[in-house]
Design brief:
Blueprint: H1 2-13, E1 18-21, H2 24-31, E2 39-43, E3 47-51, H3 56-62, E4 67-71, H4 78-88, E5 94-96, H5 103-113, E6 117-119, H6 121-128, H7 133-154, H8 163-176, E7 187-190, E8 211-216, E9 219-220, E10 223-224, E11 227-232, H9 238-257, H10 264-277, E12 289-291, E13 298-302, E14 315-318, E15 321-324, E16 328-331, E17 334-339, E18 342-345
Parallel strand pairs: 1-5, 3-4, 5-6
Antiparallel strand pairs: 1-2, 2-3, 7-8, 8-11, 9-10, 12-13, 14-17, 15-16, 17-18
């Protein structure tokens, strides 16, 4: 199993005999199986998945033969089973996820297992930064579902429909087209509310002349999609059209600069220059984009502070925006897979200004 090999290479680099995985997303990455309780243990030679009776049948059908399945519950404590396998593999140095495992649990594991844990969250941050072909396929599927949902939702947007109505329709359509759930709570904001990048849908009705910004995504096979589209209802003023055009040009410049080997700051800077040159620099306060995958926000990001080269296979959002307080906001977001020679844009929805 390629991911097991990659994890073991990281263990060797960090002089660890094994790693205890408690984060559910990292468990899915390592084992291909998702569950809410239990753990995964990977050593230099063996791998184990510890689960309870609720998930054992599904695990037996899903998890590869590379993993030994261990059932806890009914008198068998999870920590005791882990400790037994640590002994069977002669593990002396054990890594754990210091950022996602609550501090109290981290200390409790040290006590129960009789080992001092070594922080190694970086193993998974580094490995998950570059998506393999299977992961990319899952993300294309999730993105396609989001675009089908957008097509449906555009048909209901009209004066009188509330932001909450639009958000609810987005969630329904994502599920209807095969999503496993939302990547995050949908954003649907209109008029002056659209100047808030992460505004919460309210009971405000859409009005003629409003911009409506929708930011949403779904989960498919555990992987997230993410997209934003801003549309006008009834008509758009010249100011609205100008701002939309600046954001679109900025996004296209950022996409043009996006490739493996360049820094996130360079990608962000290409888009930010367009917005600054147009006089709207102070109204673009967030980064050009973030990585996504099993989580909706991952590393690395395409931000002004990201100086490290982006890896091949990184999947990032491309989402510049301009937000004019009290007036309106515009954001356009696609998702890119970075290659050595450029990027693949896996979002195909129309992004020219739509006036409904």
């Amino acid at each position: 199993m390629d991911r097991l090999l990659k994890i073991r290479e990281k263990l060797a680099q960090k002089n660890l005999d094994g790693v205890l995985i408690t984060d559910v997303k990292n468990q899915l990455y390592a084992s291909g199986f998702t569950f809410t309780d239990g753990a995964v243990l990977i050593t230099r030679e063996r791998a184990f998945l510890f689960t309870d009776s609720r998930y054992i049948e599904a695990a037996e059908k899903t998890v590869s033969a590379d993993f030994g399945l261990r059932l806890f519950g009914a008198g068998k404590r999870l920590s005791e089973l882990i400790k037994a396998e640590l002994a069977s593999c002669a593990v002396k140095s054990l890594g754990a996820e210091e950022l996602s495992l609550p501090h109290g649990q981290y200390l409790n594991y040290e006590k129960l297992l009789g080992l001092e844990l070594t922080p190694c969250q970086s193993i998974f941050n580094e490995l998950r930064a570059s998506k393999d072909e299977q992961e990319q396929a899952h993300m294309r599927a999730a993105q396609a579902i989001a675009e089908k949902a957008l097509d449906d939702v555009l048909r209901i947007i009209r004066p009188g429909v509330t932001e909450r109505d639009i958000a609810a329709e987005i969630s329904y359509r994502l599920l209807k087209h095969g999503g496993e759930g939302n990547s995050f709570d949908p954003i649907a904001v209109s008029g002056a509310n659209s100047s808030m990048p992460h505004g919460v849908p309210s009971d405000k009705p859409v009005e003629n002349g409003d911009f409506v910004t929708m930011d949403f995504g779904c989960v498919k096979n555990g992987y997230c999609s993410d997209m934003t589209r801003t549309v006008a209802v009834g008509h758009a003023t010249e100011e609205m059209k100008n701002v939309y055009d600046v954001v679109l040009r900025a996004q296209l410049e950022g996409i043009k600069a996006a490739r493996a080997g360049v820094s996130g700051a360079e990608i962000d800077g290409a888009a930010r220059k367009v917005i600054s040159d147009a006089g709207f620099g102070e109204y673009f306060g967030h980064s050009f984009g973030h990585s996504l995958g099993l989580d909706i926000h991952e590393s690395p990001s395409a931000s002004p502070s990201s100086s490290a080269p982006m890896p091949a296979g990184a999947v990032i959002s491309a989402e510049p925006g301009i937000y004019l307080p009290g007036k309106f906001g515009v954001r356009i977001e696609d998702v890119l897979i970075l290659r050595e020679d450029g990027c693949e844009n896996i979002t195909h929805a129309n992004k020219e200004l739509i006036i409904l």
